[in-house]
Amino acid sequence: MTEATADLAPHGASTRKTGQYVYAAAVFLLCAWVLVPLYFLLINTLSSPEAVNSFPKSFVPAFDMGSLTFFAQFEGMLVALKNSVVVAVLTMVMSITIGAPAGYALSRFEFPGKELFRLLILLTRAFPLPLLALPLAVLFIRTGLDDTAFGLALVHTTLAIPFAVLITFSLFSGIPVELEEAAWTLGCTRFTAFTKVILPLILPGITASAIFAFVISWNEVFAAAVLTIENRTLTAFLLQTLGEAPLHLKFAGGFILVVPALIFIFAVRKYLFAMWGIANR
Amino acid sequence: MAEIQIKNVAKNFGEYQALHDINLTIADQEFMVLLGASGCGKSTLLRIIAGLETATSGEVWIGGRRVDHLPPKDRGISMVFQNYAVFPHLTVFENIGFGLRMQKLPDDEVTRRVERTATLMHIEQLLKRYSGELSGGQRQRVAVARALAMEPDVILMDEPLSNLDALLRMEMRAELKGVLAESKTTAIYVTHDQVEAMSMADRISVMHQGRIVQAASPIEVYRNPAAEFVAGFIGNPPMNFLPAKSTGNGQWSVAGQSIAGPANTDQPLKFAVRPEDLTLGDSGLTAVAKVVEPLGAHLLVTCEVEGIMFRAVLESDLQVHVGDKLRLAPQPDRVRWFDPRTTLAVA
User: Fold this and answer.
1) Which of A15, A86, A145, B294 is spaced 20 to 30 A from B174 at the CA atom?
2) What pLDDT score was predicted for residue A276?
């Protein structure tokens, strides 16, 4: 079919070929845009501190653990890493326990103001965090939540909930109501129908949504920097020490930050597509 | 014993009234078909009986017990859905056994009943598979087996065959009828397919705009439609209608012909006759053939009688051409009359 058209219209074929080159080049550029900095991050992290600070730089990783060892031994760094994990896990748990029921309700029940509610959920992302950070800091100091992992996780949960709700909403909507109804006629209550039929079907999606919440919290820096002083998360800690820290420490810190986020996002990419209603099967 | 009684059931969806004052009694072990076009309320009625929908008013009784306040699981029903609703995360075995496991029956009892119903539905070789590995027809069989394994008093079916292709549908129709007759359960079957309804039902309830227009045996619904809607809905092609004027003494003028009819009124009526109850001859209604369709078993002729469309099913070896003037004589005992103001049948 394509060969026949090529014979009949060589001009059209060459135009198409040029188009393909342009397309390939664009894809290449976009990939390079994302991957080249990551690559530099990688090789610098895996080089010795001396190599990182010298010039010219090598383009192949030396697999020297010097920088990472220095990073691990840097005062406060491991505590910050631990704080990051604690806050992210708390965020993950809270945003799913609050977000998943909301997603279920949105997909299964009709209620007045449903559309408005969906819009409002998204609007929580419309206020820039710097705007909220100061009043939040004041409030947190008054209630004693300042400088605690739980307090920060609350803020991160607020950031993560819109995504948790939207992802779970689309997951629940993808499960036919008849499956639940069939379970009811077969002896289930609303609750057992949920645990026996809906939950097993939705678990991978819930996991994805939880991981996404984890990444949001993991990557968040502004609220973390404003609301914590002693118990800094890794992002806030790195931001604080960025000015005076040696170059190899920055690279190692950046690497530690980027890797979990990248791995997790890659693992759950299918469900992130689902959130926007793009079929990906 | 599971007689079903529906008493004064009405259902509103906001402003829209989906069901108006439904009263219906379904005898124990009866096969009742709810037949109607989409949007007539037949599925809503079924879902109210199942407990998946709540009636705005009225009562539902199953086996002498009022159930309209009970959740579906406590009503002694099981249901087959149009899209089968086979659980994708369970094997066929666990699907069929799902309800039995919920009842906490011992393992050997579950196995016994699953295997028995699977054999009944000819899916015993599929028990280890998942829903994704089954064809539409096989999923349908799993759904029916799952409902039967519960050994319910009442089995409810919502257009169970409408997602199957024509040949499979015909096969499943006969099989389902046999299986259900054997299981001795009361069955309510919702469909928009009149052939399905005619072939399977003990009794058909024809529904229209949220009301039951007629509930009677298939042949009664076909021969003596209680209303113009039923006459026009049942039968393919449907009944023919022509306006009729009284000429006194039970004689009526239909398209210029005098035909005997009801003597108790002189208001204008509608004359009605089925296309297959017409014979080609030298007397009768004068018609002009517009379309001639040789369908093999018979000849379908669409004609005009005084500008009104009129169909006749004639013998297949007759020679009829477009433009021919035909005389179509209705069989006197098959002619029906309807009052155009009430749309109901007039004796």
Assistant:
1) B294
2) 52
φ and ψ at residue B11, rounded to 5 degrees? -140, 125
Distance from the Cα of B319 to chain A's closest Cα (Å) equals 50
- Mean pLDDT, residues A71-76: 76
Q: What's the rounded Cα separation, in Å, for the pair B328 and B242? A: 13
pLDDT one-digit tens code per residue, B202-252? 999 999 999 999 999 999 999 999 999 999 999 889 999 999 999 888 889
Tokens (6 digits) for A113: 């103001």
Across the interface, of A178, A185, A192, the residue whose CB is closest to B78 is A185
Taking CB atoms and an 8 Å limit, are B73 and A185 in contact across chains? yes
Rounded CA separation A18/A109 (Å): 52
* Tokens 């017409």 belong to residue: B278
Tokens linked to A187: 């002896």
Q: Which of A178, A183, A201 sits opposite B83 (nearest CB)?
A: A178
CA distance A240 to A243: 7
Chain A CB contacts of B89 under 8 Å are 197, 200-201
Strand, helix or coil for residue A243: coil
Give the pLDDT score at A3.
Answer: 47
What DSSP line would sit under A60-79, residue for residue?
A: S-----HHHHHHHHSTTHHH
Q: Are A201 and A182 in contact (CB under 8 A)?
A: no
Looking at residue A129, what is its pLDDT?
78
Q: Which residue numbers in chain B have pLDDT < 70?
A: 1
C-alpha B226/C-alpha B235 separation (Å) is 14
Report CA torsion sign: A109, A115, A119, A124: negative
